[in-house]
Amino acid sequence: MTPTNSASTASAASGFQKLLDDLPRTGPGTRGGEMLRRYWHPVCLSENLKDIPIAVRMLCEDLVVFRDGKARAGLLGIRCPHRLASLEYGQVRDDGLMCSYHGWRYDTQGHCIDTPLEPCDSTLKQNIRHLWYPVQEWGGVVWTYMGPEKDNPPPLPKIDVLARTDGEVKLVDGDTRNYNYLNWMENFADMGHATILHGLVVRQIPRELEPYTDQSIKNWTPLPLQHVETDYGMKTVSVLDTGDPDVKFVNTWSLAMPIHWRFSGIRSGFPPDFTNERQEGGGMIRIIDDTHFELIRYSLWRKGNYRGTWFFGLPSTLQGTVEKKAHDKRRYSAWEGIPALEDLVLQESQGEIPDRKLEHLGTSDRGVVMLRRIWHKAMEDVANGKDPKAVFRQVNDMLEVDTYHGHIKASELKIGPENMPSSMDGRGLIRDRDGKLVFA
Amino acid sequence: MTPTNSASTASAASGFQKLLDDLPRTGPGTRGGEMLRRYWHPVCLSENLKDIPIAVRMLCEDLVVFRDGKARAGLLGIRCPHRLASLEYGQVRDDGLMCSYHGWRYDTQGHCIDTPLEPCDSTLKQNIRHLWYPVQEWGGVVWTYMGPEKDNPPPLPKIDVLARTDGEVKLVDGDTRNYNYLNWMENFADMGHATILHGLVVRQIPRELEPYTDQSIKNWTPLPLQHVETDYGMKTVSVLDTGDPDVKFVNTWSLAMPIHWRFSGIRSGFPPDFTNERQEGGGMIRIIDDTHFELIRYSLWRKGNYRGTWFFGLPSTLQGTVEKKAHDKRRYSAWEGIPALEDLVLQESQGEIPDRKLEHLGTSDRGVVMLRRIWHKAMEDVANGKDPKAVFRQVNDMLEVDTYHGHIKASELKIGPENMPSSMDGRGLIRDRDGKLVFA
Amino acid sequence: MTPTNSASTASAASGFQKLLDDLPRTGPGTRGGEMLRRYWHPVCLSENLKDIPIAVRMLCEDLVVFRDGKARAGLLGIRCPHRLASLEYGQVRDDGLMCSYHGWRYDTQGHCIDTPLEPCDSTLKQNIRHLWYPVQEWGGVVWTYMGPEKDNPPPLPKIDVLARTDGEVKLVDGDTRNYNYLNWMENFADMGHATILHGLVVRQIPRELEPYTDQSIKNWTPLPLQHVETDYGMKTVSVLDTGDPDVKFVNTWSLAMPIHWRFSGIRSGFPPDFTNERQEGGGMIRIIDDTHFELIRYSLWRKGNYRGTWFFGLPSTLQGTVEKKAHDKRRYSAWEGIPALEDLVLQESQGEIPDRKLEHLGTSDRGVVMLRRIWHKAMEDVANGKDPKAVFRQVNDMLEVDTYHGHIKASELKIGPENMPSSMDGRGLIRDRDGKLVFA
Known about the structure:
The structure is a homotrimer. Chain A is an alpha+beta fold. Chain A contains 8 helices and 23 strands. In chain A, strands 13, 14, 15, 16, 17, 18, 19 and 21 form an 8-stranded antiparallel β-sheet that branches. In chain A, β22 (429-431) and β23 (437-439) form a beta hairpin. The longest helix of chain A is centred in the first third of the chain and has 20 residues, at 3-22. The first copy, chain A, is globular. In chain A, 47% of the residues are buried. Chains in contact: A-B, A-C, B-C. At the A-B interface, α5 and α7 of A face loops of B.
């Protein structure tokens, strides 16, 4: 026994606690927040940005997003640097945003371009540079990069689904949560929960869905899950037996750092959706601060997709499919039966920022552990001056987040990031509308 | 003058401040909270505990109370030790409560009895013991003991009134307050306030009550109060003159540590209730945290009790009997005329936790002072490893909290805990329905 | 370079920060709050003080204002010194205010005049002196002085407009704000904002106002502003050219320390109001605490004043004159077009207490700078044991806050506190109803 040992143990313990503390942080100067600032983040949907500035809190910073008279989007600090009035109440002008209090005006790069109450020969405005962040619009979304080297940010990763033209892309925003964004991300890295939390759904497939259901699949519960680290993040893969020993049924759920998730097949994991074309779904998180975020979901609807009444997002009533009991006084009563609502209730119930040192993890938490290791490495890389995972500086192109949902020949199956069937090239087995297997 | 003296004075002053600081505390590790943890506390009414778990905050701890499929009540820490989801959203199973997130299941003693996503040969659950507290159900109430030696708690003191079979016992919960529980307890130890605060009532006896009123009693105001320490806590006694010099009219109000109160005669202290059988009333406090508690009231209605419209609990409108004035903008407007509402208004107005060092006490505050001395002694005893007052380890029986309301022969009157007339044995004088005195 | 230099620079910097920190403070023991306590402050309108005590927070202190049975107003600490119940629920008695809990009674000077539950020979009440502040009623307002030497306060400055008998004086209270009172005062010392923030109004003179509008005035925008320190505080003066080179159009806005503002002509600064008698307007602030205040506005309406629909105070709908857009999700949507609302929106948007070290001031902020210098000097004077500006101990008379709004001969124009045209003596040029200039 040496003092060094116990010091080293104490240091390991405190290093672990430090990781837990840093993990959920999003603000400037925090290890978590600095890591997050190496990526592009969604600010709002393009269609919502019109002639009125919008106050947006992003990664703990209070900002205003606006579109000038020439339709250019800009993102500035919300307080006018003159006398601190909010630019949320500013007026859009052709060349920028004007503070309504004294008329100081800023372009999308934060240059002060007018101080109308100052003398004509004033040079005051030349000394004013307001807080700004670079903005790009693509795929129906206004994006920003809040990290270092603002004039030379990494290329915007273009989310593949948003570029698809073989179906209808739908974007839905506005689902705001009052807890840390990692409660959501860890939920997605932990697909075992689908068996328990959403199991209710599996056992109650609506009659209208039965034609789409593959009766050949065995042992849905529990899902046999494997976790794979990828270039962009990680994915979870389940391989299920079918009636045919040469054919497997494969499902994947992918996470791209640090705010994207993706699945294939709108009901992946529970009742299979054997339409003749697969449905892509996913989304991204707008991180507001440590305890708030907004979900921006997207999906690709293609002809043949099931378009029934099953609900994908959150029901506006915040009620599930079960009957409300009079003695149910919980904040969410009768919450069971709709997966998005079930996720909300359980994620929120973990607390604004879960005190993870109180957890007891099992082998079924390997997905969560992988996610935390990836986050840990990314925070370390940033602290060491390196780009973290999934900052692709050389590639200015699509971010392909592969997903799969369908049958595949057992002989072709390899679980790995490089050789998983991609949702883009259509490899693998697809069952057509008549239930016949079609080799792509 | 020596430095020792002034140090000793300073120490006495800081000791007094420490007492004032400790007195209202209810959380674990505080002197007040540790004292409170030596007693059984009500968790909820039995009738409200059905097939949905209920989140309950008790003494600053967030817990969940549930009844398993075999009707056994249990009280557990609210956060599942696996990944901290709230067990409020758990599912009741035959043998315990299942977390809805990943299916971990706990029995009423906190043993983890299933981890369904783990491998079949997993021994993980054997290492999990979740926070639990022993529970007993008796008298229509779910009780818990949150102190040390959970496996061998002191016997549950059975509240005598709840065991009575000579009338109808009514239990009413749900009156929750946003201030410290001692504001309530001190109010009850301080019956002088009835003369002033509830005096309005005394002066306005409804016509329908006049037949019940004993015109022989003199000098209701002010009440001549004496305070007596008892085995279970303390009591306040008023002895009033009647028209007959050999007969006195006696009223008592009793407090049993640390959350019980009792009176006899629903309008004790103000208009006398000379029905042919006395009415017992009282209640107990469910302490939520330092600044919240819930009242659970009970009463014993017997045949002959006055059943008029006079209101005992809090009116749902939170309005008294006086007319509301248009210029009354207070939180509680037109609050006068109903004792329970008057008590709420004045107790709440003292502040969440009154800053008692600002008080100026008089001789009429002897009841309050006695209560504080009893609390102080109990905290000291617990700090010294002893049981505090009214933890009766040898007796597993009724907690008799004696009260009295009626006439008594002056020659028999002794003010003291051991020889006060008891409400159980019916000693003393009772006036029958015709107004005739009957010696029991 | 010497260490002294850098220390002195650091000291200057920290001195500046200290000024910024002290400036908005209002509580006891703060430099800002101690300065404010040298002045009389409005507590409520006389007409609102009836037979129910009113809880008022004044300069961070929780107080109760009441009128005893003999109509004398009193201002006491809100908590009864006996057991800390709120005197807001006290009962008005002929000679004072009685606590409803135990009946202790206080007169308007805080003397305890009864402790009814104490023995008849008790002397306890002689040792109780409750917190009280001197009160005066004048001009429809209950005023108090919360500074030192309460028994000998400086004379109440009587606001001249409230004493006028040549028109109808209107007092309006109840406009409560959730930010620091200096956001308001600095707005008034900074009339340049009218050109930008309220400029919308200038450009949209309602047709009904056109007959009143002087088409001869040139160059309304920007206003040529000068700032003058006065005995009572400061004033802002704008001198505009007219069609006649010998005649100027003059507007003034005045601030009297530390809570009063005044203007002449209800639309001063924007569309001129050339009625045959000028209209006086202004108001004062009831400071609640560092982040709350209430506006008490007054105006003098005289025959011939324009009485149209233009709105002076805050519209109850909190909507301006522009149409609300569906995508306007701001707290204040469609806020433009009503000056009082525009001021609310921009002042509130600066933050509860603006972080002034982030400002960038220009030459157009000279009014704001003058105000801060005056406040700084006043805080210094109080810290040095002197009376601050505008505490007039020798004069027990009107506080004349001069304002002007009208034409004046260029040869007579001097900008200065002692020789500016006064609104009281009517010097200067007034245009009559027929539009003819009349020399007073």
